[in-house]
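Reply to dn_fold:

You asked what the input looked like. This is it:
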Amino acid sequence: MSRILSRRDLDFLLYEWLGIESLAARPRFAEHSRETFDAFLDVSAQIAEREFATHNRLADTEEPRFDGDRVQMIPEVAKALAAFHGTGLLAGAMDEAVGGLQLPHTVHRACFAWLQAANIATSSYPLLTMANANLLLAHARPEQVAAFVPPMLDGRFTGTMCLSEPQAGSSLADVTTRAVPDGDGTYRVHGNKMWISGGDHELSETIVHLVLARVPGAPAGVKGLSLFVVPKHLLGPDGRPAERNDVTLVGLNHKMGYRGTTNAVLSFGDGTRMPLGKPGAVGYLVGAEGDGLAYMFHMMNEARIGVGAGAVALGYTGYLHALGYARERLQGRPVADKNPVAPPVPIVRHPDVRRMLLASKSYVEGGLALVLYAARLLDEKETGDAADAALLLDVLTPVVKAWPSQWCLKANDFAIQVHGGYGYTREYPVEQFYRDNRLNPIHEGTDGIQALDLLGRKVTMRDGAGLDLLVRTIRNTVARTPADLAWMAERLEAACARLHAVTAALWSGRDPAAALANASSYLDATGHVVIAWMWLEQAIVAAGRTGEFYDGKRLAARYFFTHELPRTQVWFDLLESGDTLLVDLDDRCL
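and this is what came back:
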């Protein structure tokens, strides 16, 4: 059995639960069937095993380095990406008109999860490129799409998103990068960007940077931000990269994990180069001035779901490695066995090891269900009940990003613990999985930012319509729960009622500072309610079916409802109390 991902679990979620075969009846997916879905899942697993997993450790120990001129990187990264590009999956969910395969997003997300679990660093390059291309397809002018999107989907160009700056971090209202009209329809961009994943390398012919900047006279704050395409190279008449743009790699950040992904400090328009004989990086405005952040959210939201999926993938592979180790490692004897010379047993027999493994199983399989459910909503948004699917996806996006980033990271923590002292060494890969996953609570908006987004925007928008829809959808699951799972349904119904009531209470005073004081606890509670829902859905499908796989689903569902869902009561109690300690404290006392 693979220790990257479980194909059996993917088949269960895709076919037995989400029923993705039915999508082939829709015009957009008419060229597909279960056979094509399976074929893409198979090839993704093969590439993950043969091309991505095989250099995961090497990319970690021999991370990219800047020699003062170029980024040097192990050749296995380019080889793996070429194999991925050859499948066509870079444009897997996109329109045939742009060279896409028109796969359902649900299938595409499952395919890409194989690569993320096998090598999160190498998979980051296509993840960002796909999101970049999707933004341009949605908001750029036709000539911009024609110039930059086809080469990205062919794997010749890669893409980035350039938001953060050294002085601003996640506070985009403080972005200072400038874009000055050049008189010919282009702009000259000046400023510095930091923490740019994939910001420089030699893996592609050029890099398409999407840059947030301010035009002259733009208002302060996020409403003054515009979005620009700033390529590493200007394109010649034949569409090929030609003259270097004034985009300079200042240096690489060296992170605790994700070491195989270049993370760059970039200078735009510092005069190192003079494209077309003038200082400043040449940029092309996307859409209208002042709408940059709205456009960038198209890429950010896709990337946030991708980060959640990556967190699940890393937690999942960590769990599978820990499970395999626990079945092989002989140590100790059962508590009831008093014979000191009895042979040692596999550590999977010990209750505390079982606790960690079962908790991990509940986190990673619940998280995978959530990620695929979000992808299924995107399919519905594009081909089905668009309004409800879009609203529910909006509400769930911060949960999809943040819950796996915290709890699937916990699965990696448990994987180290199951390995004992060995887990803390480089002899086993679980320490790298943890280091890689530790970045995801920070990537694409910290978990604290996601908490503010959920409680401050998503559950209040349209007079609470999004929260009402979420609760109503969960209650639809509760209503069709079979009698032998009624106890789970009752607990989930009670948690839903509490979520609804606590949300109303938090905003009853209409004081944002007080309402948002414990937003992180609100995110924790909401996430656990949502994952309990995912587990009830899986338990319903598994009901009455026999075999170890279905027994495992029932065990994990039982664990989540008995050990994890009760945590929400503590969080809800705190929220309901109106405690404002975190707002009121004097930080000099910290």
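The chain has three domains: 7-288, 299-444, 446-580.
Hope that clears it up.
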